[in-house]
């Protein structure tokens, strides 16, 4: 502890981590001794130093703040090795999914899986400059497309995937299974940009190829189902989306390790769809399963955490357990802004909504995300009684919804409802009635009973 105390004393900005390692000797393979005492050989007497081999693996069982020092964290580690069945299953899946033509390509793909995007981009560009075959170039373009997608740079990602597709189609038949991944990648990008017809076009191509080429319980087939279901979700057909997500999840549970990242994503899809259907208890259960897996397999700072925590924050808020959700999870800017609005802290709400809008505009991603933030800003200004500004933002949000969504999409019903409340506040009763009638027409067709009941003035 002496080194820890010295480091904390030097700077008040320092946060220290103290590792407590537990080694069950019954789990140590006789042929692989992972550590040795070097007390007799160390230059510093009395240190009782232990030297671990570089391939030693520990499982993080618990991370907690020290009771007597809020700048010190204790991390409980338990020794494990290749005999751990969960670790073995996870490593096998990762090896299968990072199979590439060379070791260098495998390293690049592993960097992407770990969320090291800057290093991965630099590495992939180096590989691209030294590429010696069309096969290598196609693989690198595919990795770069995946990286741009994860960063929210969708148009750039489409360019890379289309380059990969152009090369691939020159070398394989049109029904070759390897084309399915590229079709899926492009479809997912169009889905994120709100172009659902294009997304379905590419997803269906991938699905048709995969159904002919893959076993019924193959993990890739589950991924294709999930992608198609995601489009149904975005189009507001939540019941059909949930039914299909469950089919995909059944395959994932059979073919994937219990702590596989793709299984976490499957739980996330189910959870968010339950949320849209108004079943917040089921949504919370599924999203907690997502968070549990991500905590085990991802490093702190991975982008997956922000998405999951944002949804957990929404569910807690809907369940009216704000204190629990707010203390245990970081919520996205937009969600934090809406929480401040509900608490009557309007200036703080505006700050966070504007931060969300700045990010959404900078990445030039899905315009529907901007629409949500515009609506949130409009609601905040309405509650502040700044009706002129509220009208500006609500109109912007509704214009995007009308241009990007089907006429009977549930999000449009919610937007019309909010516009009706604004017109009611300004005593424009005819306009209020017009908007609330539009909201009710959509709600009767698309929204669950709980949501329909909330369409009131």
Briefly summarize what is shown:
The protein is mainly alpha-helical and 457 residues long. Helices cover 67% and strands 8% of the residues.
* CATH A-level architecture of the domain at 84-213: Alpha Horseshoe
Order of helices and strands: HEEEEEHHHHHHHHHHHHHHHHHHHH
Instruction: Please work out how many helical segments DSSP would assign.
Output: 21
Largest sheet: 3 strands, mixed
**How many DSSP-defined strands?**
5
Q: Residue-averaged pLDDT, rounded?
A: 80
Protein structure class: mainly alpha
Helix content: 55-70%
Trace the largest sheet across and list its strands: 1-5-4
What spatial form do the alpha-carbon principal axes imply? globular
The CATH topology of the domain at 84-213, please?
Serine Threonine Protein Phosphatase 5, Tetratricopeptide repeat
Query: End-to-end distance, in Å?
Result: 62 Å
């Amino acid at each position: 502890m002496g080194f820890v105390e010295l480091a904390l004393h030097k700077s008040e900005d320092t946060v220290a981590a103290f590792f407590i390692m537990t080694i069950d000797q019954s789990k140590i393979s006789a042929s692989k001794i992972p550590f040795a005492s070097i007390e007799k050989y160390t230059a510093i007497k009395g240190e009782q130093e232990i030297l671990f081999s570089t391939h030693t693996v520990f499982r993080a069982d618990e991370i907690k703040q020290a009771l007597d020092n809020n700048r010190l964290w204790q991390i409980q580690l338990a020794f494990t090795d290749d005999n751990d069945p969960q670790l073995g299953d996870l490593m096998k899946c990762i090896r299968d999914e990072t199979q590439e033509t060379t070791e260098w390509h495998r390293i690049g793909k592993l960097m992407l899986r770990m969320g090291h995007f800057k290093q991965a981009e630099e590495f992939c560009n180096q590989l691209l400059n030294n590429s010696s075959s069309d096969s290598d170039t196609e693989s690198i373009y595919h990795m770069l497309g995946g990286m741009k997608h994860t960063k929210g740079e969708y148009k750039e990602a489409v360019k890379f995937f289309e380059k990969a597709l152009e090369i691939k189609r020159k070398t394989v038949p049109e029904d070759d299974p390897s084309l399915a991944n590229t079709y899926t990648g492009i479809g997912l990008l169009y889905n994120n940009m709100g172009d659902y017809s294009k997304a379905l076009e590419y997803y269906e191509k991938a699905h048709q190829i995969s159904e002919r080429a893959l076993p019924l319980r193959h993990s890739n087939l589950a991924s294709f189902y999930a992608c198609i279901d995601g489009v149904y979700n975005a189009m507001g057909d939540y019941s059909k989306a949930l039914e299909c997500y469950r089919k995909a999840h059944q395959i994932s549970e059979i073919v994937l390790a219990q702590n596989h990242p793709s299984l976490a994503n499957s739980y996330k899809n189910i959870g968010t769809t339950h949320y849209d259907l108004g079943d917040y208890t089921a949504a919370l259960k599924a999203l907690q399963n997502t968070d549990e897996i991500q905590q085990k397999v991802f490093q702190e700072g991975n982008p997956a955490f922000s998405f999951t925590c944002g949804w957990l924050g929404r569910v807690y808020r809907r369940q009216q357990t704000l204190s629990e959700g707010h203390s245990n999870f970081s919520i996205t800017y937009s969600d934090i802004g809406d929480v401040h609005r509900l608490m009557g802290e309007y200036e703080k709400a505006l700050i966070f909504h504007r931060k969300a809008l700045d990010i959404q505009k900078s990445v030039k991603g899905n315009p529907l995300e901007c629409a949500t933030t515009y609506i949130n800003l409009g609601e905040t200004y309405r509650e502040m009684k700044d009706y002129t500004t509220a009208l500006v933002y609500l109109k912007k949000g509704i214009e995007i919804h009308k241009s990007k969504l089907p006429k009977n999409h549930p999000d449009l019903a919610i937007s019309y409802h909010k516009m009706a409340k604004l017109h009611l506040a300004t005593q424009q009763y005819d306009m209020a009635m017009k908007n609330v009638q539009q909201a009710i027409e959509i709600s009767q067709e698309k929204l669950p009973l709980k949501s329909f009941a909330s369409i009131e003035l």
